[in-house]
Structure formats: structure tokens, C-alpha cells
Give the backbone structure.
Amino acid sequence: MTAQHPISREHLRTAVDGDRFGVFESARIERRRGPYERLFKRGLDIVVAGGVLLVASPLLCLTWLGLRLTLGPGVILTQDRVGRNGRPFRMLKFRTMRHDRRSTELNFDGTDRRQTHKSDEDPRHTTLGRFIRSISADELPQLVNVLRGEMSLVGPRPELYFVAKRNGILDHPRHIVRPGLTGLFQTSGLRSKADLSEGLHLDMAYVINLSMLSDIKILFRTVGALVRRTGA
């Protein structure tokens, strides 16, 4: 299946390589889905996500119980995020923060970044919440999103829907694939340093070069990052 857009794959590669500061955000691309993406990627998502959910079910239960005892009701939160082709979906996540407004005491890099990049210094975080975030256990409920077909194991991380809509990037070419539980940007080592344009650049590099090999490499890097507790 081909998504029809006025810029070819070759032109896109050149454009992305030369666009480090977000100039390319509103471009369109022409892209043909390969056999892996059409036939096997979804099956890999189901098998791996189902297996991880089964193995991690004790951790899920303990995480839910710990958060329920420390934070009260509403342990699993939902957020409207941007899915494939710009369609919204409800992303699941463990809540690791208290419902209070003390975070206004902190300095943040703008409203959008405050919404999409929670600081570990935010006073709403509990001790347990910080630990859960440090091992990325707060993302485990998204395995359900993967099984539903709303997300993939590997892909660009889903943006908040209202932020993408306000910034006019719902049709950004990064959204022609399913968003991922992990991605190239998250395993690049630049997650805490790069600006958003660098993130878009890496997301597009993934979209252009999507293959089974690239997905496997990203999954192994994710496991390594989790073991080292450097995030993913």
C-alpha cells in the first residue's frame, strides 16, 4: 500500500538529512510499505506484547498496588495521543504523580514541553513514582495499546493530541506509521538533551528506514537502556 504525497522517498531522505531544525515538519512524503511492515510487524507486536504482559503481570500487579496505596484511586490514566495517520487514541499509563499544583514553583521550557516532558524534579512525584519512572514501569499499560493495534512496539513516541493539533502537525509524516512503545529517539542517547526538532529528525529517520532489522536493533537497545536504568 502506498501513501500518496508529493515528495518521493529519495527526496525525503535528502530533506531530512538537511533539516535539523524543524523546517521539514509540514512536508508530505510518498512511501511504499515493505513486506515486513505489511505482513509481519503487527504479528511481532502481538506475540511480543502478549508475552511481555504475561511475564510482567506480577510486576504490573505490584506496581498498581503500590501506586494505589500511595496515590489513591485513578492509578491508570488515559491521555489523548496522536495515532497512525493523525487519528487520536487513548494511551494508557500508570500515574506516578500527585494531583496538586506545586509544580508551578518550577521552571519549565514552555507549556508544551511541560506537558510532554515531565521533570523528575517535579514535586508531584512520589518516591515510588520516581522509581517506577526510572525503570519505565509506568509505560507497561501501553502493551495493551499495542495489542489493540493503536501502537506498535517500535515507532515514534505518540504526541499529545491537543499539542499536535495546536501546532498544526497532525499530518506530519511521522504519523504515517503506528506510534511506538519505544523508538529510535528514545534509544539514541539524546532523549534528555535533544530539542524537539532533533526528535522529529530521528523519528523521520526511523520512518524512512523502517525494517525488521531496525526494529530488532531498537528493541535490544531498549532492553540495554532498561537494564542500565538510563531510560528508553
Summary: The longest strand covers residues 76-82. Residues 79 and 91 are 5 Å apart (CA to CA). The beta strands are 2-3, 31-32, 76-82, 88-94, 152-154, 180-182.
